[in-house]
Here is the input.
Amino acid sequence: MTDSHTTLVIGATGTTGSRTTAQLITAGHHVKAASRHATPVPGASSARFDWYDPTTHAKALDGADRVYLIPPLGDSDPASVMLPFLRQARAAGVHRAVLLSSSAIPEGGPAVGVVHQALPGLFDEWAVLRPSWFMQNFTGTHAHAQSIRANGTILTAAGTGRVGFIDADDIAAVAVRALTGDQAPNTDLLLTGPEALSHDDIATTITEVTGRPVAHRHLTYEQMRDRLTAQLPPEFAAMLARMDRTIAKGAENRTTDAVQRLTGRPPHSFRAVAEREMTRST
Here is the structure.
């Protein structure tokens, strides 16, 4: 299938951006893959894009009428750069925008929640994806995955709180539907996997799948905040540590049917993702 629309994917080399780009291309859609280094993506045109360099924005938008938005990583006030870009996008002819947010951030909440609140006033066709925590945090390049590989530990302040962890492939599948469906969702979509798991459950599953012992180490909020501050801006680190604390209190202990409703199939389990993406020890 092909169509006359062109989707600009911002963050096309990232966790959900790369998967969304690949799935759009496979389905026959025109894609403009935007990243800071204009990394070539087979089947798509590429564009250089930097949230903090407005001189890259107009060229990236040229010819696009739909956009998938990945907020700037680590910025506690993404609206300051995203809202001017979105107004420029609307003026340039973009009529549908799909924003990646988080299950932990409601409309009008902190950080990207401000952009979520503004989106319906900027575009007639829109969606906000609010996925739970990514399963790929344990299999890719995230600090959890690095810690698992380095010393067999997962460090959080989430206690025994449960999370509806979701496969990034499932997020991308929903993004594709939201970007290309005949009707835009015009709502926010809370996305989860099929079950809510604790980090202890995650550690057990990884141990069973890989044959390597993995344990969840329980940290205090302060320990987690200080650990993250060594790698991230202090305000953003504190926000992430607070999210762990809300998990401990049960805020993410939920599942939804959004993936099934939007894609027509159930979301992938963590065990299936671990078996797909993690190597068993010998």
Q: What stands out?
A: The chain has eleven helices and eleven strands. The two ends are 44 Å apart (CA to CA).
